[in-house]
Amino acid sequence: MLGSCLEFTRQSWNNRIEGTSCEVIVETEDQVELSFTRTWDSTLVGKHVSLKIDKRFVVLRGSSGFYSYAIYEHLEGFPGFNLDETRIVFKLRKDKFHYMAMSDDRQRYMPLPDDRLPARGKPLAYPEAVLLVNPVEPEFKGQVDDKYQYSCETKDLKVHGWISTDPPVGFWQSTPSNEFRTGGPTKQELTSHVGPINLAMFISAHYGGNDLVVKFSEGELWKKVFGPVFMHLNTTSTGEDPLTLW
What we know:
Elements: H1 2-5, H2 10-14, E1 21-27, E2 31-39, E3 52-60, E4 65-74, E5 81-83, E6 86-91, E7 97-103, E8 106-109, E9 121-123, E10 130-132, E11 144-145, E12 152-153, E13 159-165, E14 168-174, E15 188-189, E16 192-193, E17 197-203, E18 214-216, E19 222-235
Antiparallel strand pairs: 1-2, 2-3, 3-4, 4-19, 5-18, 6-17, 7-8, 7-13, 9-10, 10-11, 12-15, 13-14, 14-19, 16-17
């Protein structure tokens, strides 16, 4: 089911899971855990941040989803740099997922990414805000699309995602704990937005600025686990209201 939910384009392929090594960490009848690791070296100057990044994916028997988390390390000899933002991003199929939900009172049908293009939208004061002048679906005409409209305080950021009505499938991100995020429980973070995009934010300067940027000195030793988050898929019977997936 997951493969039928995700958008596969040249751009999404260029942002694929990448690593210099892949390892099976756990393999039992009830659990499989995969590790994709990339370690910075001097030949990667200007191409990747100076970290060892270990991306993990965990599948459990009988579970209708998978867990993901990451382990970041800044090792001895690594150059200093600033880590402004890091996250997990899932881009869903724009021909399927049109309804977004992040709480009982914050959910709606969403415009298409095409509506943000110059032929259909007018950029406003900053790039994220676009006036929908000639959207594919006329109901969105005159609205402003801006991903920051869907920000949420991390203490309330428990579940958010998308619904496809044909077929009826829900794609949800659940966050069991926000302790790994920077900024505390009242810091706002992005959730989902037109794309359709689903985000798991780890670090960002959103709503906090430079004080929330993680700054590394040369050779500074540091290690942190981000996550886990749980990506959950559900479905319903044909004819049943797809909103019950929420």
